[in-house]
Amino acid sequence: MTLSLSRRALLFLGLGATLTLPVLADEGMWTFDNPPRQRLKEAYGFEPSQEWLDKVRLASVRFMDGGSGSFVSKDGLMITNHHVGLGCIQNISTPENDYVANGYYAGAREKEPACPGYEVNVLMSTEEVTATVLGAVKPEMTDQAAREARKGATARIENECATASGLRCNVVSLYQGSEYHLYRYQKYTDVRLVFAPEQQIAFYGGDPDNFTFPRHDLDVAIFRAYEAGKPVIPPAYLTWSRQGAGDGELVFVSGNPGSTSRLSTVAQLELLRDLVLPANLEFLKRRLALLHAYSARGQEQARRAKATIFGLENGQKALKGRLEALLDAKAMARKAADERALRDKVTADAALAKSLGDPWATVAAAQKKAASRFKESRFVGFGGSRLLGIAGQIVVYVDEVKKPNETRFEEFVDANLPSLTNRLYSKAPIFDDLEEATLTDQLQYALEGLGKDHPFVKAALGGKTAAEVAKDAIAGTKLKDVAERKALVEGGTAAVAASTDPMIVVARKLEPLAREIRKWSEDEVQAPTTRAGEKLAQARWKTQGKTVNPDATFTLRLSYGVVKGYPAEGTEVAPRTTLHGLYDRSASWGFKGPWALPQRWLDKKPALNLETPLNFVSTADIIGGNSGSPTLNKQGEFVGIIFDGNIQSLALDYFYTEDQARAVSVDSRGIIEALRKVYDAPALADELTGK
Amino acid sequence: MTLSLSRRALLFLGLGATLTLPVLADEGMWTFDNPPRQRLKEAYGFEPSQEWLDKVRLASVRFMDGGSGSFVSKDGLMITNHHVGLGCIQNISTPENDYVANGYYAGAREKEPACPGYEVNVLMSTEEVTATVLGAVKPEMTDQAAREARKGATARIENECATASGLRCNVVSLYQGSEYHLYRYQKYTDVRLVFAPEQQIAFYGGDPDNFTFPRHDLDVAIFRAYEAGKPVIPPAYLTWSRQGAGDGELVFVSGNPGSTSRLSTVAQLELLRDLVLPANLEFLKRRLALLHAYSARGQEQARRAKATIFGLENGQKALKGRLEALLDAKAMARKAADERALRDKVTADAALAKSLGDPWATVAAAQKKAASRFKESRFVGFGGSRLLGIAGQIVVYVDEVKKPNETRFEEFVDANLPSLTNRLYSKAPIFDDLEEATLTDQLQYALEGLGKDHPFVKAALGGKTAAEVAKDAIAGTKLKDVAERKALVEGGTAAVAASTDPMIVVARKLEPLAREIRKWSEDEVQAPTTRAGEKLAQARWKTQGKTVNPDATFTLRLSYGVVKGYPAEGTEVAPRTTLHGLYDRSASWGFKGPWALPQRWLDKKPALNLETPLNFVSTADIIGGNSGSPTLNKQGEFVGIIFDGNIQSLALDYFYTEDQARAVSVDSRGIIEALRKVYDAPALADELTGK
Fold this sequence. Notes:
Number of strands of chain A: 19
Shape of chain A: globular
CATH topology of the domain at 7-119 and 189-259 and 554-689 in chain A: Thrombin, subunit H
Strand content of chain A: 5-15%
Oligomer: homodimer
Number of helices of chain A: 26
């Protein structure tokens, strides 16, 4: 559930407002068609022009595997986080050239290698389509019928748009389903790597320092978008600031926050606290133990598992923080009191109460249902192996695309198919031994969790051991070959039904069970929750006015805040770190472990201006998906790049406070200092700074 | 109560064990006659020889105004904290030469200036005298009679010892009054300043960074002891370590922890929580506001108030931390459970129960009594002004010394008189305007707190305003002249009774009231608490064995621990900081405020090895009074000097855990690097390192 967007989405957790509070000072992830003009003017005397807004929007990019970024040169350079680009860096690495460990700098355009399966989007325009979407829903419809009606209307709008514009078109549900907007994206799928530092400096401090501040990470990677073999001339790009951002300075973050839980009911939070988060943590613990054991087999195995371990450890720390927040009895009591207050207001308004019914009870009932089959929902599916995931996607694909758009699973509707196939046909390497280890564990885990008599376990194992099934399927499958995947997809139902590929055979056996539980969950849990959510939104808007921005939806938003330290551990945490701090932390730990420095950083130290800022914090409101978002000043210049939130922000996914939660950026000055003095990349630094 | 020892004592707060737990790994402030040989051997394979113990003991010094230190050269150099030596540094400063702000380096022995009122002690030998002291107490005696019997026996032992040895002799009560030991001290009263850095670097980070880690303070001051105009040849001195202490290394702390509350009952902690600490915090807030307003009058005023503000802010932060600890309902519940468990054990042993009675009830009743007159005990006395304090001491002195030793107030018994007069006759400067401001406020505060009809308020104000009384008394008094004080003391009761000095007149009026409340408190609160404490100690020893070390008594103790980081803020705090960290913190705050650097440190940066360790943490068990204690390695070499505990140690005055609480030292390597490269003091560095 919390792992749904992508592991990267976990990097940022929401700064939540409680139900009855108005939006706080720097709170809010605002859509570009409705920026917080009034609040910016009142609090900071700043009024962004339409031109300013358009330029920032058009310079912002979304990385489809869960991050954000921006164009930063007229020749299509894009900057994002190293951890957003890690998949690519790992995929173009080989045992001989480990660019994750050693970093990468192409040095010349013709040498820039393509990233398999990458896609970035630029939001070209938006248009409200609420009337059309909600007009398709009749009051007498069941929850399920209402959902299909909305989906049908949405798909029609998307298809018409795509045909007319040639763009990627998505209808986005905002304000808990009370508004629908059509988003049109320019899409780039030829994304090439230009520069990446060593992971050791990008993720400096490793798992211990993750989600913390003070911090010393050069968490950046630089890509270039291409079209027809040539660098893209982007619709807009950001000017690089040589001054960075000063203390108390107003800054903006333009990016794609993934999802927030700010409007969740107590029943939803309790399910998370009591069932979902503990189960996810149990899974992460188990899988990490397995991966560490796999890594211990040798250097090459360690290299193969590195990106996955990185993601899972990151998730583990984030989930622990969230669970701790929910275990805070006082905070939960406040949340409950807020909810009661809203319910009381609704009850006090007879007409409103009649029109809304009791959406809280509906949500609570849906959570109870979810709990009743929670164990199955954890195991039934195509998890544990990339190859099984691919096989499962193919098997479902050929069935889904035959249906009308509105009855398909979300990722198979026409508007999403190009992205799906882009990933399905990715040439990213797959390692048999790693696949075998994780798939064996996943099947064994399901056996332990569901018991040997559960239909899923029977279907998956067929009387064999988990290890046997995994070994046979991986040894025999041809799905590592992208052409094989294409042939099956293009061959449709018949080809899939006839396939003797052992992984497809397994996926075929599992497919009805996976479909059943997913359909059940969508009908019995999600559909009523969504419709109740619309009513909760109404309750909120009608009693409190439209004082808040919509929950995050992995679409483009503008946040703002100020560069500002915060109190912690009895003192004041400074708003930034410098290169001095990097060397201090390393020396303090004896240059060892997660605080070891790449050799290059030791060698080049005398050349560096050690007072150069490296990372800084601001009060901007961010969450998972914002990774790689540019941090901008009032002139719309690039002053830094978001890469994390501090540990305090973990507690705030559900309970908002601005006291300590901070967004963490790499400073634009630190990036240039490193490119020039550590990486001998003056040409790249010049291109970024427009010199 | 918590302010009783001295403001410096607040720098360290106890790492307390709960009642029913055995002593934990590195817990304990051990007397030198009973070092934890067994534990050191088992945990660290180390067995200190008697020679090792004697050398460390004889090289350790106690600064009588509340700190510790050590001899570090054969020519009598002593090192302690800057904040322990601050009184001297301030006192030898003038408006033209502000050594607190600018630092001080004598450069040659003949230039080393004397510190007014200073006294340091070296513990030459100890001897158990329990039989004699407790033999004087008969079971049928009242609590008050028992106290006088103990005091009488104690005074006789001390006087005999002083006469025989010429040393300072004190009987120390250990293990909650179940053991008494005679401590013999060599005393040095000619203490001269050799070196002090700027307070800005000694107390780098100011109030915000106080009680925190990571930390970057050069909190040292170097003195030399003289006798008969010549440098003292100390009984022993510590060799300076050039290697410092490594990660996980066993280290020792030899110093004078002031007091611990590890054996306090729940009733005592509740009184602290509900009455004492909130009142002290209210006072500190008020007095600090006054002093800040006074400082704002001008640069010279700011200079005059600096040391006092430093002390009060320090106290404020410490008390806030303690209060927070006591407000932790869970921790208090644990404490209560521990206490119940001990009571149950006593109840289960009929003979023991009969012999002990119910000491918990006795303590609780005494706390109730204390609460009944708590407000008076806050105001009735000679507080608010140094001159009034001196006047009060003189007035009481001439009465007290006429009595037999055992019936005098503690500080007036023969053994303590030399120290008392050393301080009473101190030439430390007194500033009229500052005196007037604080005395006015103190009298006004008493008026507000007690009401205009309270006898103390009537006696103090006599119908005038607080401002009038303060102004007249300070303008008219001659007590700034040390000779005047001596004349009154030597003139005895008659001279004091005849004095028309207006401050003496005020003190005479207040004296009966101050005496009454103090006597009442000693008889009604302290005497029964002390006797019940002995019984609580017996309950503990008899049911659990003598598994713990005695509570701290501002006498010499040996602690031990390892150099070790700790988890905080989601990551691992490194065990040390380096000079890189100092410059990082300063640059991160724009070289401003508490993080500004002295000009010398900016100028000399290029000369420094920035990877030199500056501060480090260890698990050694310390508390207020340990300020300036040497940190030693297994070879007994000086590897650092204690100057603080981290913020987590504040919560542990009452509830022990080793998870995060740490003692903070300045690293021996950082001191030498600074002396050589920043302060151009190679001769001093050579003397310290024995080069």
